[in-house]
């Protein structure tokens, strides 16, 4: 059954790769056909990815997020889920061109990590672990989408200011629409990240006897929380909109990636297992 999960994972990776390539082509020469092909590839990849995760859940007997391979795969799955929800809600075809290459790279990195299924270590045998991790992944997925929207905003702003707007100018949403969607995504991700930090502190207290342990992931999570708190506060109080919010969305997600992969690379902190 473990081999079956691996096969479905590899098939999902293949379809995500196809979607990323088609998405890049879509940036330069977009048609209705390429847009549909990209969306179809994402949907097929997501379906196969979901089956892979279900298989691992059945084998392990718990949500498959307890090692770096599973965590990166589940993060990718959450991001694709939110992408599809946004696509069917707003129909921003070009969003896939900005976000699918990121998802493919996440999945590719996941494919390079050990896939062995092991029993949960004692510290992970807590329902707080599952709650904390799922909230964090969903929050980070919302910020990944805000990153994609932020990049689209910066590109569209470039075309708006240009004396010779390119083809993308006509196919990208307006700056106002992108700014509003970015704000909505942050208002989704911020409370999820807040709850993830709170439940993580509760879990840490039960597992290690303290709410904060000075763990690098904790420090970077709080830094990320502060960035998005600044975005929301500045928008509501100071009227910050547009470029500033887009830039901070990009910076915030880059910190998330540094937090997510830097911990694994340097193998430091209590979150190494994720």
The class by helix and strand makeup works out as mainly alpha
Tell me roughly what share of residues is in helical segments.
Answer: over 70%
Give the strand content: under 5%
Round the mean pLDDT to the nearest integer and report it.
87
Q: Could you spell the SSE succession in H and E letters?
A: HHHHHHHHH
Cα end-to-end separation: 23 Å
User: What is the general shape?
Assistant: flat
C-alpha-based Rg, rounded: 19 Å
Question: Unreliable stretches, pLDDT < 50, 5 or more residues?
Answer: none
Count of separate DSSP helical elements: 9
* Tally of domains: 2
Tell me the total number of β-strands: 0
Major beta-sheet overview: none
Task: Give the topology.
Layout: H1 2-28, H2 32-60, H3 68-90, H4 95-111, H5 127-161, H6 167-171, H7 175-208, H8 216-238, H9 243-266
Describe it for me?
- The protein starts with a helix and ends in an 8-residue tail after the last helix.
- The protein has nine helices and no strands.
- The protein is flat, with a radius of gyration of 19 Å.
- Helix 1 runs antiparallel to helix 2 (32-60) and helix 7 (175-208) runs parallel beside helix 9.
- By secondary structure, the chain is mostly helical.
- It has two domains: 1-120; 123-274, no CATH class.
- The protein has helices at 2-28, 32-60, 68-90, 95-111, 127-161, 167-171, 175-208, 216-238, 243-266.
- The mean pLDDT is 87.
- Helix content is 79%, strand content 0%.
Give a summary of the structure in a few sentences.
The chain has helices at residues 2-28, 32-60, 68-90, 95-111, 127-161, 167-171, 175-208, 216-238, 243-266. The protein folds into 2 domains: 1-120; 123-274, no CATH class. The chain contains 9 helices and no strands.
């Amino acid at each position: 059954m473990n081999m079956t999960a691996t096969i479905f994972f590899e098939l999902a990776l293949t379809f995500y790769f196809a979607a990323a390539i088609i998405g890049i082509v879509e940036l330069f020469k977009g048609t209705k056909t390429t847009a549909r092909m990209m969306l179809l590839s994402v949907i097929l990849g997501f379906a196969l990815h979901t089956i892979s995760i279900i298989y691992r859940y059945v084998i392990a007997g718990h949500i498959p997020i307890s090692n770096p391979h599973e965590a990166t795969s589940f993060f990718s799955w959450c991001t694709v889920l939110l992408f599809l929800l946004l696509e069917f809600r707003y129909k921003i075809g070009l969003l896939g061109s900005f976000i699918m290459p990121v998802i493919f790279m996440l999945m590719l990195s996941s494919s390079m990590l050990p896939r062995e299924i092991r029993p949960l270590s004692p510290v992970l045998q807590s329902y707080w672990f599952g709650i904390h991790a799922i909230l964090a992944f969903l929050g980070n997925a919302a910020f990944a989408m805000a990153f994609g929207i932020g990049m689209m905003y910066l590109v569209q702003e470039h075309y708006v200011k240009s004396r010779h707007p390119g083809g993308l100018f006509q196919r990208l949403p307006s700056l106002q629409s992108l700014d509003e969607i970015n704000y909505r995504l942050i208002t989704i991700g911020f409370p999820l990240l807040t709850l993830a930090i709170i439940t993580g502190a509760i879990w840490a207290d039960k597992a290690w006897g303290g709410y904060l342990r000075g763990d690098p992931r904790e420090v970077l999570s709080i830094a990320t929380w502060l960035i998005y708190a600044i975005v929301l506060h500045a928008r509501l109080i100071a009227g910050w909109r547009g470029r500033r919010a887009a830039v901070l969305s990009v910076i915030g997600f880059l910190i998330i990636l540094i937090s997510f992969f830097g911990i694994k690379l340097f193998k430091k902190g209590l979150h190494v297992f994720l």
